[in-house]
Design brief:
mainly alpha; 3-stranded antiparallel β-sheet; 17 helices; about 400 residues
Length: about 400
Amino acid sequence: MHLLNADIRHYPKILPTAARAILEILIRRSKGLLLDAEWEDLKALQSHANDFKQLQEIKPEGMTTWQTVEITSQAVKAYSGTNEPIPFIQDINAMILTNTHTLTTPVFDSLGISLSLTASRISHSCAPNCCITFSGPKLSLRSLDPIPANAELTITYIDLEPPTPWRQAKLQSHYFFTCACDKCTASILSSESQFPQDIVDETNQLLGAAQRSDPVQAYSLLSRAIAKLESVNPKLPLHAYPSPSVRHQMMLTAFEMRKWGLGLKMALQGYWDIDSKLYPQKWHPLRVVHAWVLLRLLLEVAAPGTFELGEGGKAVDWYLVIWYLWIEVMAEVPKSHGIENPLYRELVGFGNGLKDSLESFKNDKGAEKATRLMQREWVRLKALVDHM
């Protein structure tokens, strides 16, 4: 079941996503589109309604989660004219909160929510062996590691970038369990690279404000956030929370402001120093998507007159850099997304404009020498970025 997302603050006559999802479920049931077996499977999903009732945390919209559930359920009752009682609608609402996945494009832009009666039963792990991707409305479970026979399949329910205490708190407050996966029980708290909590809190406040601001103000806020993180001694790696999110937002802001050099630096640091640590598998879908974004950016850089990177930029053969990255991404996307996914077709189309010149280069230099020359350009690019 898939529904496009809408923000009720911007479109007040459009019901929130959860309400529209409940409406679709009730309408499908009334029209006989949900078979008895599916209906029983749906009702068997955990709702955690009683747990939500106990939560007293006030959300940004000024209500607790359960107060939102109550209002949403009343709206669904009024809109649908259903004979189902309010408590039952509230249960379905709570089920949606805890059992849906974010419906995304192949590059993980959010579209809405997806409710799969099968995927909703997959357990969480902070070191998952699978992840979910979408190709249109089709949900796919992609393996991240070789999985032994009869081993449990796991995914993550949350962002895995933050440290263990944050993850544990998030899982407890939203899914009502304490994670006991290997990552959480390995007593790694002392070995995790963590910024002091006051730095984390201040940086996240600056990041949140930047996401709500115009590009000029966002640039100022993010510059302060990065300076705050870089002031910590000893220096922590770029993949330490919350640095990846701050740098990703700075990349987006830099592009909006046409600060191409800064945007390229943030993108390449993400490729070299962040993604390889957060997503150690080269075929991790998020890592592949980030490399695809970088690939398109590099093509823009290579275009004459786009922007200048000084003498160092002129010394880089950008097309050798692009060829090398395209070969790398093409090798991983069948595992990350599958050859039936639109992203694979996009990459093939992108490569159609490169293949002839790439094959000519390989034939002229020989495959091994061509690879060495492409790798040499990445070394030059790394040196260029390190001095930006």
